[in-house]
User: Fold these one by one.
Assistant:
Number 1:
Amino acid sequence: MPARTGLLTVLPQTASILLLAAAGGVGVLVEGGLQDNATEGSSGIAKELSHAAPPIEAHKTSFPGRVSATSPYIDPVTPHRVYAYAGTTAFIPCVVNNLGQRSVSWVRHHDIHVLTVGRFTFTNDDRFEVHHDDGSNEWLLRLRSPSTNDTGIYECQINTKPTITQLIHLEVLEPRAVITAGQELYLDRGSTLRLTCQVLDAPSTSDFLLWYHEQKVANYEVEKVEVNVRVNNDTTISTLTLRDAQVHNSGQYTCSPSNARPASIRVHVLSGEHPAAMQTNGAQTLPGPRGCFPLARMLPAILLSLPPLFRLHFQLHFVFHYTS
């Protein structure tokens, strides 16, 4: 019986053609993808599939084979991990020596999906294709417009017995902004607000970076705001500074680079009579005995970690000290 892979039916090794069961007709696999009712290219397909050893399956560990002058093996220069950026074409290389009449296949692990065999594509996802130049020993799996969902293990196989295989982990990085102060910031009225934003996992520096206070562009529409942008080791870093912050300066601040996902923080500018956790320039301080907001939030976890006798003593001490 033929082995089935998704919509594709892989016929036994003696078959000369790969058929696709499709509504209204028969499709045939051609170089670069599927073509309905194809009549040409069958001889090329037959040549590729005559060397394919079905069924192709995913393996848990790599077995690249031994270095040899005559037998096929995957060259040690083939990487175990490849990084790519979301939206930018990813290339996963597999360097194969002494291939001879064998075939190279690519398998995606998370759904055990055969992507390519030889030069032919086995998937309806047209973002995938294999690239190989005549005379070269490199077989590149090319993935256009990758997303973080494409992160995972891809397997390069040679159809020997046992199968020679190399597992390669593709990690797709999504450029993102990070505000170093976290998600919330408290400071006294009249203090200096200083926010720092870094653009991480970006293939290049940002063309521009805007800060927003609620719906206003803070770079241009908020009084007393100073914005500085610099590049350090190919990382874009921006600092927003607002001196003599007032209560009306409270709200959501957003760092929005041209080439990355934005990041936001909520700022609370408080009058002196209100208890609050004070955090300035990334350092957290307490204004006095009544400034117990962070401690109050941590209290349940602290109490649960104490033995019963110490727990009671701690509760009595806390109530006496912070309510007197």
Number 2:
Amino acid sequence: MISPQPFLSPEKLARHGTRQCGNEIVVDYEKEAKHVSITARKQPHLSAMADVAPVVLNDEILEWPKNDKRRFLHVVYRVGDLDRSIKFYTEAFGMTLLRKKDVPKDKYSSAVLGFGQEESTFVVELIHNYGVENYDIGTGFGHFGISTTDIYQLVETIRAKGGKITQEAGAAEGTTAVVAFVQDLDGYEFELFQRDATPEPLCQVMFHVVDLDRSIEFYEKALGMNHIVTIDRPEEKDTIAMLGYGDDPNQIAILELIYNYDVTEYTKGNAYSHIAISTDDVYKSAEVVKLVTLELGGKIIRQPGPFPGTNTKFTAFEDPEGWKTVLIDNQDFLKGLEE
């Protein structure tokens, strides 16, 4: 039985060789239509990790993430030349530099850029460690996503500013949806989407996992994300899942997880760092994460509490496959921006 899903992005469907038919998602494989469940499914080829002993969880505590006030705040990754990246992100992508700081004591500098203000939109935070010119992106990280109202112009601007075009802008076969792939000056890949104006132009973070079902369950339980869709692509030998805080991928930032059949290991490198997400109660959120890690794996890597030197409360953890997330107190985050 396929759940109703009226909000699935047309360009995302097109990219994965799918189309929407009424309340169903239909995947076309060599002219043979196959229906794909939008709810989480257990598939033999997705069980790459060892079984974890069952753990009885407190249902009341586990309801907290669904009732919490959450959104994607920023995604953090490292670059070899901060000023060069700022110039490229502002001139090629059209982002605005929101803040910049230098921390000599810890030998790093950072910059926050975005398509809107941090109070309400998902942004990027770029980190540069003194003396480090190159980072290893690894094989596990996939790409970021940017939506634009003029993809052809954006591609040409990126090309003119020195970016690499890995897939030219164009309509996917059999549809009018338009996508492109580009790389910034450090080799990070971005998928571009042609869309109407959206509140979240920075719309996606994608990375690979080896056990998709377990990862979906982790992000649903530990972080309260909504599992929007799963698309299985046998011809590409992969399966993709999209999660986020909401139902309409055109209006929210999305976490996209991809599983490649029979791949049991990826390298994470040292370039990509983490996603930061808001919460109204860092301590309660950390307790939920702790319980879920007992069931599914992962670990708390920073106990909840104030960040050293500030009053901003946060906690940090890794999912079962080592991808890092930081939860930040909503009110502390907003106060920090005012300061």
Number 3:
Amino acid sequence: MTVAAGFIARIRECVKYVRSSQGRQEKFESALLQMKLPIRYVSIDVDNRWNSTYLMLKSAIELRQGFMRLADLDNSFKCLPNSEEWEQGIVICKCLEVFYDITKKFSGVKYPTTNMYFLSVFQINFNIQTWERSTHSYIREMAKEMRKKFDKYWSTSNLLMSIGMVLDPRYKARLVEFTYKKLYGEMLCRSKMEVFREELDTLFSAYESSSGFVPDYFINSSTSRTQSSNHENTQAPSKYEIQLEFKEYMMQDCVVDIHKSELQKYLDEPLLEEASESTFSDGGRVLTTHRSSLAPEAVQALLCLNDWLPDLIDDDNEQA
């Protein structure tokens, strides 16, 4: 937030001015009434907490017509941002909104499974790539600082999360390969996938040697070697566009190879069908009144059941 601070300083000053006294708050409410805007408090942020800065920007931007009217009503109000400063605040707010929405998925009322976590981190990474190509210098500078912190985390966790995706029979390695190609391009994706498959084989070999048992669901046929879509985009596609692209990617032809390990056969067998939009959505994961009183083990069981048997569950009629 240090990079963004200078570009949102005037908006921050507006909020502090209005919240500094009861009299100023009443004048602001009068301005809102005159502009037929809802009367509500604008949030004061904490400089080093990006989520509070997002909420401050969001509330101030929604009521900016009220601030403009306040400048006419209050001669002491001298910190009204100009149109360029408002635009900078809007752009920064949209960037922070990506983090805010994804953070909500990991909050105390939503419990995403590993596949949701992997996809959310992918979306953050993909957005940072887009911001690094922004026409706004301050967004590029923000993205540069984000990249330093993100890469440190991603380098130590992406392999573990990728392996976790394999255990979901709807996606397996196909979604991992799809996201790698979106992030790294065709050439680098190949080397990344080689490392991924080597680690996966090592893990499975350790499992075989320790258990001496290969579950039936690892034994099947059919495979998936795919060609990628064009990686070179100047703008991040919408969630809907990514859904369509992933759906097309998943429908590509398969080739059978009988000389495969049980792990490879599992990875290459046909995926379980699923509506493609649910891949990039966390819908249905909000805890209901009944679920909120359940033990953690029961909540986890319900979420897994909803993932694996969606057609057998009616959330609206679910009994605790």
Number 4:
Amino acid sequence: MHVAVVGCAHGELETIYETLALIEEQENVKADLLLCCGDFQATRNLDDLKCTAQPERHRQIGSFYKYYSGEKEAPVLTIFIGGNHEASNFLQELPFGGWVAPKIYYLGYAGVVTYKGIRIGGVSGIFKENDYFRGHFESSPYNPSTLRSVYHYRQQDLFRLHQLGKQVDIIMSHDWPTEVYYFGNTAELIETKPHFDHQIRDNVLGSPPLHELMKKVKPKYWFSAHLHCKFAAIIPHDDEDRSETKFLGLDKCLPGRPFLQILDIEVGDCSDNCTELQYDLEWLTIVYSTKHLMTVEKAAARMPKVGDPNRAGLAFTAPWATSLAAPHEKFIKEIVSYIVNQIK
């Protein structure tokens, strides 16, 4: 299956789809799935635009509203995670993920879905140590502080991903896991981004929690964005199978920048309905089994460690042979979308 991966979209959804059409025309390669690694900017209207953490002079409505309103339809199934420049008010309405427009699916704070037998997981936002152990306490209307803290992922999000036991094919994150830069062309990365040099030497570039997640889940592929450059690496894992994770970080959507790559990924075993996006039953079971640990309070709420009595109630069992289709026809437009030339 041809899987197109995009770094930071920055609201340029129409440009991305046009790029895929150009690749199909010139190279005869048609993308079967599009994955976006954050800064998607699902901005429906000017109210959403005010909820993005950007200086006002940099705020652009983008082109997502055309797909939300029905003016246009996504030409390929699109799955995305959030970054640090999002219409946070809209995405907070879907903490567990869901359709934001026909054929465009958001993975939520953290989530796992299955498409054509490929398990795709992701976590939205970026790491900020001061907020990591808090709950998702933010709500609209945001103040200058919560406008930024709302896109910081929390330990409770990654805790759920740590419980995954079955093989995960793809994980998406906005920021990079730490240490991945040691397993690719580090010299070229520093040449491209000289200011990364001291952070790489000190091993502080990226997210330590994502590094721990990679070593635990060991996905076949890990895609990221955020640092606005392209970087590939193969990270070996210390296990009997000598498994490895192929990491790819991509740039932002701008002319002449390496923001998109198409990979040929082997399709897994799937049922007769595998042409539709499907909810992942292991993930749904984990979400249900950990609901008592989740919080929306600002106070710290650390997740239980192995051996902690609070883990006694966790029982991750489910009839995984059953599939749950997630048809995009269930999408319902709820508010008025942007109108060109409307008064701000």
